[in-house]
Design brief:
The complex is a heterodimer of chains A (221) and B (311). Chain A has 221 residues and is mostly helical. Chain A has ten helices and three strands; from the N terminus they run ββααααααααβαα. Chain A has one domain: Transmembrane di-heme cytochromes, Chain C (Fumarate Reductase Cytochrome B subunit, Up-down Bundle). Helix content of chain B is 29%, strand content 17%. Chain B contains nine helices and eleven strands. Classes of the chains: A mainly alpha (221), B alpha+beta (311). Bound molecules: protoporphyrin IX containing FE and iron/sulfur cluster (SF4) (2 copies).
Amino acid sequence: MSNSEIDPGDAVHPGNPVTVDRYTAAARVNHWITAISLVLLALSGLALFHPSLFFLTVFFGGGEWTRTIHPWLGVVLFVSFLGLFFRFWKLNLWKREDGTWLARVRDVVAGHEEKLPEVGKYNAGQKLVFWSMSLLILVLITSGIVIWDQYFGPYFTITQKRVAVLVHAVTAVIAISVWIVHVYAAIWVRGTIGAMTSGQVTGGWAWRHHRKWLRNLVAKH
Amino acid sequence: MYPPLPNPTVTPSAPKLSDKNLVRRSASSVPAAEPMTQVAKLIDVSKCIGCKACQTACLEWNNLREEVGVNTGTYDNPHDLTTATWTLMRFTEWVNPQTQNLEWLIRKDGCMHCADPGCLKACPSPGAIVQYSNGIVDFVKENCIGCGYCVKGCPFNIPRISKTEGKAYKCTLCSDRVAVGQGPACAKACPTQAIVFGPKEDMKKHADERIKDLQSRGFKNAGLYDPPGVGGTHVMYVLHHADQPQLYANLPKDPTISPIVEIWKGMTKYAGLAVMGAVAAVGLLHHIVAGPNRVSPEDEEAAKRLAERGQ
Ligand code: HEM
Ligand code: SF4
Ligand code: SF4
């Protein structure tokens, strides 16, 4: 069973402190392409979302470039996220302990890890971010294509485009909110960002936040 | 007959339309505008003979070139508005069930210059669409980013985006001619006075005379098309069947800005910014209150014991 709780590249290295491999170089590159394209998409999209944010177009070479480049960044994001999806989906499947973890969300935000069930590579919060982003990006690319007039203008009616642009804007707001939660969690839980920069976390981090994963990794050796 | 506008003097004069006359400017605000007389173009469909002089005059005045098209069995040429065709004669053959007469309904399609313009409401680019205090809604090419939002905002399906330039185009109501005291080129070219131009109040009076005349000749439902759903328009029609505007190549009966567009451009913007701001604020607050979630030395110790036991 333990094989389904870890990824092939994950490994524990004894030492002081213990270090744990969490993401391969390929996974990290994949993640950062996704992250950069998402940030650029959010900035270029928000520029058109509200007049007070139109100034953001200067980062993309003006309004016309912003309008042109945004959907292409969307394609990059979609393909890149697809890569992440196939890398991560298995360990993001919902487990029994996730319900318990979520029910004790008060202890989660209070930082009382000792009151939480031991979880695998991802906790329920991370899984929710994963699945909601998967869904949101799917909706964003679908609605985005409907309003991508330059190439797909003739294939959709004006009513469809009106619905799509509303759906796109609302979905983008939700996606950006989920992204803020994701980034905040990575900052708040110290020692997390290393997982996506060097690919490693400390044993203590794994023990504190993903004990089941650590146990499975140790058992593998 | 409504007296045509006299030709202007040939001595140069400053244009009468400027930024001071703006009542609305897309994605931005403007100071109170210098008021002007509200103008309107009145198109009397019952007088139109379908000669397309107006369509030609529009091409000529605006220096536009339309591609040579194909005939699909109607007189509509081209088949739709394009970036070069800002006004289009649409021909409908309709058998009046009451009289069994074949009626040839010819409508000059183009921008209606809405008092409440959906295109302007939807446009995200500051100053790409402007509305003057005389009622003209104009697109400003330099500020247009070609996003196509105006197409979604317009209740009449008017703006067209150029594939080559990435800019939006539509009828300007000849704002450049009106600025120097002239009327639109189409009105000037019309041989039957089916198109007249002047102060909106005068146009309504003129329309009343026309409607009375039509009613006296059996068109009981003759009336003026000045749809209140978009605050009235600065291009109006006299229709012989004003109760059924759809007969005229689907002229909408009670046009309004789509509620989807209103929600998108209204609530979504404020709620959206509020939600994103709130999520960020809660994060910041949480960090201030709860402090960082750090791994303790005990955690590291425990991990070390586990790793060694496991070896
Ligand atoms: C995944 C593929 C995506 C595609 C194909 C796409 C396409 C588009 C298009 C065509 C527009 C209209 C403006 C333009 O032509 O540039 C637009 C607007 C927008 N997009 Fe995207 N987009 C995508 C992803 C995203 C993502 C991931 C976000 C945010 C995280 C986003 C946020 C926005 C926002 C906020 C707007 C402005 C909406 C408004 O004006 O109300 N988009 N998108
Ligand atoms: S395409 Fe239309 S909505 Fe977009 S910037 Fe140009 S005028 Fe405004
Ligand atoms: S008819 Fe369409 S393009 Fe013309 S002013 Fe009204 S909303 Fe704008």
